[in-house]
Amino acid sequence: MALHETRREAQEAFADLYAMPVTAEALPKNRMPDNSSDPRAIRTLIQDELELDGNAAQNLATFCTTWSDPEVHLLMDAGLSKNMIDKDEYPQTAEIESRCVQILSDLWHAPAGSNATGCSTTGSSEAAMLGGMALKWRWRERMRAAGKPTDRPNLVCGPVQVCWEKFARYFDIELRQIPLEPDATGLRPHQLREYVDENTIGVVAILGVTYTCDYEPVQAMADELDAIQADTGIDVPLHIDAASGGFVAPFVQPDLAWDFRVPRVVSINTSGHKYGMAPLGVGWVIWRSPEHLPDELVFKVSYLGGDMPTFALNFSRPGGSVIAQYYILLRLGRAGFRHVYEAAGATARALGEAISEMGPFTLLYDGEGGLPAVSWTLTDPENTPFTLYDLTERLRLRGWQVPSYPLPPAREETVIQRVLIRHGITPDKIALLTDDLDAAVKHLLAGPGRAATPRPSFHH
Ligand SMILES: *Cc1c(COP(=O)(O)O)cnc(C)c1O
Fold it and tell me: 73-328, which class in CATH?
């Protein structure tokens, strides 16, 4: 190798990150580069590109964790190589998963001695699929035993999150989504009777309706299903989609019976990565007792000398967020969760008050009784010179992500805006948002310019 070549390479090794050859050109987008590059340069360029994403700390649309303490970062790093499925190679990771299942069963009042069972998942969507499948299998057993046809299963629910539509489509189930009554934000128990029949595999109740953030009345729904059973003999189980509420209600509304205290509730799902405060990638599903999880669904794989019962849609999966979930549960404890979510609720109610004082808005949910969140509509959309979509766009100029979207059927004509308060969304941040909201409203009231087309909704 010529001397000047060696010198050039030595020079490049010490070059400023932005003076390296790789930074002189745009990053490859369609084809893998022929040669290797300096890792620091590539990382910096990718990080720079990611700056174009929205700022997660100003994302008031998401339920998901956007702040984690340094210990979580350390544990996630340590968990990088742990495969959740390899229970035999990583028995302590498996043990930690099992402890979380037991902690959640206890938190949700599984009856003593019921041997409540469950598992971690990638989120509530996978958890809903597993919970839904167990309902379907159990229903089929019942129908077969009664000598009845098993080709027309249905699932009854109110304004559910899209994961239940997916479940119904993937597993060939008719989704009977009950339309909202004119002034309702969730399913009303008296509506059930018209939709439930002997082909109903279950009813899903939502603890924290995605659209408006209040809770559906689990106990009253169970009472109505009791009454239906008394009248018709049809015994319909309840599954609770507590994606968000599962980590809020036990601390903020401890006397609300929405969980296994209600005998009709057979299974519950939650998202660890939402109000469970774990990093993205973990959810949970728990069954009241093993009889509610049909044996045929559980694979007992003999694996490297171990017996590994699993119920999951995928095989390999990172263990880090399960480990981080265990850390959060231990580190915060019950008092920590209560403190975080009582504070979040107070912040939400203060925002609700500020919004109702601004003039053009009517609160749909004021942050009392459900999730720490606020949702509102324009009081008189016809006579207001701007839409909520305009306001969403205007707030985006300051980096805030505040979604606007229509309510589900049969209230699609009502457009609403929603702000979620979660860990890290402080009163100080909300005071800054309130100032920006106020300024945006004044600007829009003063000037012309209605956004012609609504933007697609981006609620989660
Ligand atoms: C977010 C959410 C889901 C989906 O959960 P993921 O963890 O994002 O898969 C399901 N149901 C409700 C009520 C939700 O809020």
Answer: alpha beta
